[in-house]
Amino acid sequence: MKKYILFLISAAALLLTACKDSNEATPASPDIETTTLNVDVILPTDIRTQWQPSIDWAMKNIADAQKRLGQQVRLNLRYHDEDTEDLDALAYSLTHPEEGADTCHAIIGPYHSANANNILRYAARDRLPVIMPTCTSSELQRTNARNTYAWFLTESDITQCEMMVAGAERLGNVDVALIYSDDTYGQSFRDWFGYYATEQQVHMAGQGIAAYARGADMTAFLDDVGDDCQSGRLVMCIALSNAKDYEAVTEQVRLWTASTTDSGKNIMVSVILSDTALEDNVVEQGGLWFDYGISPTASPSFGFPQSYEARYGESAQNGFAQIYDALTMLALGALHQQVNGTTCNVAGRQVVYYEKPYGPMLTDHIRSIVASEDGVTCGWDAASLARAFSEVAAGRDITLTGASGSMTFDSDTHTKVLGTTYMLWRANTVMEDMRQVVPVFYISTEGSSTQASTTSLWELNKQYSQTFVDVSVDHNLPAVDERWAVIVSPSTSWSNYRHQADAFAMYQTLRHHGYDDDHIVLIVEDNLANDARNPFQGEIFVERSSDPAAQADIFMNDNVRKNAVVDYHFSDLQPADLADIMMGRSSARLPHVIRPTAASNVFLFWSGHGGSRGGPLWGNEDAREYFGSERIHDIVATMGGDGGATPRMYRRMMLAIETCYSGCWGEALQGLPDVLVLTAANAQESSKADVHDRDLGVYLSNAFARTFRRQIEAHNDITIYDLFRELFNTTRGSHVSIYNQQQYGSVYSERMSEFLPQ
Question: Please, is 223 exposed, middle or buried when counting C-beta atoms within 10 Å of its C-beta (0-12, 13-18, 19+)?
Fold first, then answer.
């Protein structure tokens, strides 16, 4: 594989003037029909400086490609500084132009994911195409998955997170840990690092992950990781938003590594940095200490990196190829619109909208360009672009490949790229004041002759699942005489709608299976049904669909709040109150409790947020208080009795926990008799919401809770193992786990009818 030395671009800063045309107009022949497209480019000043050669190159090739055509497109680029503009005001002005102002036809940018929603929410009105070369937040991409105007030219940081763990795994038998920035950028890494560590069976040392806020001391986290490092070799992955934070954190890691050597621990430490580290002042910092980095790059298979280096004497970096592709896509889409007018087919289907604006827009014509797989294959270079424009002008389809890669987009909207090439690079110090960044290998989700493929590298590990031993447990239990349930949702905000909705739906499921209200304690804030933001006043849903084929699904379009009896508003309780409720200690303040005995089966369902230091939180995602693994252990252990003065308060107990890091509770309850814990995630990973509703603007449910309800509604006597398999197969982004099977009994023969008699 050819190795490239990457010297970071250090050009003089350009003065940006908002809404000023930076391109010299070329007089058009009176015989040429020219469409001018006003394209507003929103980037930080330094990024525009770095990307300018790619921009100029694309603009030249686009212009040259159309010289012989009677219909032409001219891109009028208007630049805005992402770091200084009021982006909310800017987005509004671009999408709601004053009388006499020039129309904005498309937006390229922003550079940072955190700024994208300000622009996208205004672009929705007219489906104005917003092409984002480098916005990689997984949550941003997921919430815009069905929006045909939101274009993402780099895969989400879920993929980069996978690449980080893969890079660590390629270094040998190692332990891993992650430090991430406590912001929008770091969220994807926080959410997915544990998942991929589990998939690839790489041990996460200590707490595994920790958030970094500027100025924070990470020593305690590093000590914890070092104490639990099993292999003696640690790969510390770091994903931070900016260069200053990288300098501070990598220096802390360097000093800590030196201290472990001095203390005799002798842990070998390597560091892998995320893409935001590939900046001048990070790489060129003489005293900075690190080994490796991961960054999206242009695919070597399509020639852009080699051509860029030959043309400019420097190597292409993250975003260089994507901005080039963004401009060519816009120009070809505009020409397609000019030729085809109000007729537009995307992947063979005519574009039809049932809401304003009804007709196909520019974004749909771009979709038509990239969705075609049957036309003449056209690449990114000047000669290929000339062929592409000629074919489109003649009304024929093309199959477009780009500077960044194959330009394969999702099959739903055709606006989210599915293949991104990543480079694992190494920083070498060649002189005291000079550092070089050298590619170690390229890795891609597509694969090619010059790139490894994630599919081939990890095919064997992608279906990692927990295995079980068919144990036999002599319970010597009495016959069951009562069943009790406690349902808890600690979330109180509208944005966390799904947690209360799932709690209400579980209540309805238990009622359907024979529980009366005296045997259920429902703890929710109950502030959703009449929230001013709820377009369906008095109603709460976990699933909604207008598709007649979906109407038979459990809870589809059902109001799960209907007739529910709420026992406690969550905000009226303290963590210690749950022990009283579970153990039957009623009072004037806590009149409704369960009263289990040694002949009672007890079911606890909990839906909310969790954290890596102890699982379920007592409150919303910003809560500073964990309910506590020790607290839940003490409650269940006390209910288990001591065989003497303390009576046993359950026959069997099941806990179904839908939170991030819910496996922390499973680990805490290991060894307790006749207790089974079923969690949406293991102790090192987050749980993901997956049913987003456009009308309500929130997630309605989680796959774990939804599948749990569906399965037990259909089969109340389903075996624990069959339930687990359904949960495992339908819950994306986390590993559903069972804990304490050895003390409960065989998952192959024990059934949910223990807790659901009807």
Answer: middle
Q: What is the pLDDT of residue 518?
A: 96
Query: In this predicted model, what pLDDT tens digit does every residue of 631-666 receive, in sequence order?
Result: 999 999 999 997 677 899 999 999 999 999 999 999
**Is the previous residue joined to 478 through a cis bond, with omega within 30 degrees of 0?**
no
Q: Using CA atoms, how far apart are residues 363 and 105, in angstroms rounded to an integer?
A: 10
Structure confidence at residue 550 as a pLDDT band (50, 70, 90): low
Torsion 712-717-718-720 (CA) sign = positive
Q: 11 φ, ψ to 5°? A: -90, 160
The rounded distance, in Å, linking the Cα atoms of 660 and 682 is: 8
Are residues 360 and 506 located together in one domain of the fold?
Answer: no
Range of the domain at 562: 483-754
CA 199, 205, 208, 214 torsion-angle sign = negative
> Exposed e or buried b for every residue in 408-431, given b needs 16+ CB within 10 A?
bbeeebbbbbebbbbbbbebeeee
Q: Where are the beta strands (DSSP E) in 352-433?
A: 376-378, 398-400, 421-431
* pLDDT for residue 15: 23
- 84 located within any domain: yes
**How many domains does one find in the chain?**
3
The tens digit of pLDDT for each residue in 418-454 reads 888 888 887 765 555 555 677 777 777 765 445 554 4
User: What's the pLDDT at 692?
Assistant: 82
Q: Judge whether 106 and 78 are in contact, CB under 8 Å.
A: no
| Of the candidate ranges 116-125, 297-306, 467-476, the one whose mean pLDDT is the lowest | 467-476
Amino acid of residue 34: T
pLDDT of residue 14: 24
- Looking up tokens 């472990």, which residue turns up? 260
Could you tell me if 286 and 332 lie in one domain? no
